[in-house]
């Protein structure tokens, strides 16, 4: 057995007025809880250093850029990296990245995987950006990720980390089977993701009652159909008037939820994950080499 003890560190709402040092203190408190319960890896949510600003129409460029991180770690986030290194605990962190690349400023919805030594192992930039690119004032709130972020340009990589093959995706990615399969084809045994998911989708209010169901359905399917552990972590609760679902969970390669958050606030749930539990799925029912028929799948990428 290759046991890795993992914590899903759900965050409650982050107020617009909450400073990064204040948020980092909350993250460190969850990290310490994880360390105290034997976690080797703690998974934080998507965009978890600030309120989820894509919910707002922001015209002023400087105001918008203040929501992004220009370096990681920065002076404000270094305490999290230092504490993680002191405790010998790795972590996943979602944040909004502003970088100078190819001679221009670029903005991404980003996640990093950090080792027990406090060093960044890998980075992923969100590819499936939901919502809309223009101001739609008819909506009770916006989702302007298509406006504020570029489509991620790093693909879905995997890294050998925490005793197995580890990959990441972010939020809306989990609803798209292609994201899971790209990781599955690389042998992913552990997929980490954060999410900010409003209950209300004004385009289909009749589905609001299904928000938690669709959240777990997407991740449980991804886990089972690719034979991987999944850690899905929410920024939950009513954030600046918008209710976001919780339901952070740890899912086995069988698709079974083995641990689940029960609040809409800061809450750590953990599980001892045997990465070898991926093998019976990957070697049998979803043995890609034996059963997949890519010659019949072309439409998936050609349409
Ligand atoms: N949020 C949401 C998600 O995919 C969304 C967008 C909300 C989609 C409600 C469908 C219904 O979970 C992000 N940030 O992708």
From TrEMBL:
Family annotation (SUPFAM superfamilies): Carbon-nitrogen hydrolase
Entry keywords, A to Z: Hydrolase
Pfam families hit by this protein: CN_hydrolase
Start and end residues of each CN hydrolase domain: 4-275
GO molecular function: hydrolase activity, acting on carbon-nitrogen (but not peptide) bonds, in linear amides
Gene3D superfamilies assigned: Carbon-nitrogen hydrolase (3.60.110.10)
Membrane spanning stretches: none
InterPro entries: Aliph_Amidase/BUP (IPR050345), C-N_Hydrolase (IPR003010), C-N_Hydrolase_sf (IPR036526)
Domain of life: Bacteria
Name of protein: N-carbamoyl-D-amino-acid hydrolase
Lineage: Bacteria, Pseudomonadati, Pseudomonadota, Alphaproteobacteria, Acetobacterales
């Amino acid at each position: 057995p290759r046991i890795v003890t993992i914590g899903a560190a759900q965050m409650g709402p982050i107020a617009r007025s909450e400073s990064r040092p204040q948020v980092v203190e909350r993250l460190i408190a969850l990290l310490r809880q994880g360390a105290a319960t034997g976690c080797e890896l703690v998974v934080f949510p998507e965009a978890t250093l600030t309120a989820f600003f894509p919910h707002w129409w922001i015209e002023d460029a400087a105001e918008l850029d203040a929501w992004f991180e220009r370096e990681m770690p920065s002076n404000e986030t270094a305490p999290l990296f230092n504490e993680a290194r002191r405790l010998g605990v790795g972590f996943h962190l979602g944040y909004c990245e502003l970088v100078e690349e190819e001679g221009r400023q670029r903005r991404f919805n980003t996640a990093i995987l950090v080792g027990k030594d406090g060093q960044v192992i890998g980075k992923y930039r969100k590819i499936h950006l939901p919502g809309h690119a223009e101001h739609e004032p008819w909506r009770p709130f916006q989702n302007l990720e298509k406006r504020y972020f570029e489509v991620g340009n790093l693909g879905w990589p995997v890294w050998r980390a925490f005793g197995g093959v580890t990959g990441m995706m972010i939020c809306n990615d989990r609803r798209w089977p292609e994201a899971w399969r790209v990781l599955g084809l690389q042998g992913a045994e552990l997929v980490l993701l954060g999410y900010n998911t409003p209950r209300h989708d004004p385009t289909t209010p009749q589905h609001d009652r299904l928000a938690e169901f669709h959240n777990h359905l997407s991740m449980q399917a991804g886990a089972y159909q690719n034979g991987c552990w999944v850690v899905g972590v929410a920024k939950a609760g009513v954030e600046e008037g918008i209710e976001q679902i919780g339901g952070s969970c740890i899912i086995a390669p069988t698709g079974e939820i083995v641990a689940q958050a029960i609040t809409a606030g800061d809450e750590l749930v953990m599980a001892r994950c045997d990465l070898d539990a991926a093998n019976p799925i990957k070697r049998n029912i979803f043995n890609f080499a034996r059963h997949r028929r890519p010659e019949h799948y072309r439409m998936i990428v050609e349409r």
